[in-house]
Predict the structure.
Amino acid sequence: MARALLVLAPAVVALCTVAAARPVAYALPEETPVALPPGLGAELTAATCSACHSLDYVTTQPRGKGAQFWKDSVAKMVSVYGAPVGKEDAEVIATYLATTYGGPAR
């Protein structure tokens, strides 16, 4: 009998702990809508990129990396993360991003 209690004691403690646990509530900051600056390809870029992540992800990338950085970034989204973007759209998006964010921060 004593052996049975020793075996069951951890299970009873675990059940009591789970029963007493309360859900944790996190206060998240309010989302702020981000709009991309106007330009050729802005609407396509916003619609395509925001399907998978916020546009903050786009607007907070480092500046001054040039056209190849953006071309590689778009290619990575397609080949690594599976973004459903055709070749022509990828070129338009990469060109827009390079034109808009490829130079130094303004």
About this structure: The chain has a mean pLDDT of 85. The longest helix spans residues 2-20. The chain is about 55% helix and 0% strand.
